[in-house]
Write a structure and sequence with these properties.
Strand content: 5-15%
Largest sheet: 5 strands, parallel
Helix content: 25-40%
Shape: elongated
Distance between the termini: 39 Å
Number of strands: 10
Amino acid sequence: MKRVTESIPLRRRPPVEQDRIAAWVRQKIVKGVWSPGDRVPSREQLLARFKVGSLTMQRAMDQLLEDGFIVAHGPRGTFVAERPPHQYRIALAFAPELQDPSGWSNLWTSLLAAARKVSRPGPFRFEPYLGIDRHLDSEGAWRLQRDIERGALAGVIMDHYSVRQANALGLPRKGIPVVSVLSSEGSAKLPALVPDLDAFFDGALARLKAAGSSRIAAVVLGNSDTWHGLPELERRYSAAGVAWRPEWVQGVPTMPSFDWGAHAARLLMTGPRGKRPDGLI
């Protein structure tokens, strides 16, 4: 299937009666007029208030149920959910998609696995929305837009690519908290979680040395910053008491394929056991 190569507008449609009803109920919940566990007005009361048909009312209730704002308890009635999404649902909005091998890596797999682990005991629920790139034409982008517009998110965690779409998605306008992983790049000024790579490298050298490694190689990003930073790497090796061999530091690009890093690692590990690296960062 051919992919659209230019940005397309986000899907929008004129609001209908069911949306107006659902928005009214959501506002009561979001503003704290109705608290978790409170009973929602009966179907008859809502029908009288909005003067709509039963089918329209059912669609509004279905929307609220789907979003997690309310729960139905049969004859007892309908109640505000104990953990409504605007307080407990966190979006993981990542640019790559699972079926895209050129962009997917173990980083995203690990983040999703960690999110599932944290979600199990609760109370927060982390939900993935994938394919949040500049096209905004994926199923994940449509779901994210819908949940943003409905106010069904407590916050959004974005990666260093998807965060560039924060304004286009309307996140600052909606006031939904956003944090970026790895970078704060983007048109919106947002807080970011950035790894301390210097501390990571020093810790990795110390750990490998403590494990008995004395010939430690490294596979790093092959850009100009890394090239000019080789003297700093040499200093870190020296401070850790590890022998420095420049040919054991290989630079690879992050794109177009993460396989390049694996190829460099295999090349480093080729040769007699006593002469090849016995540790790898």
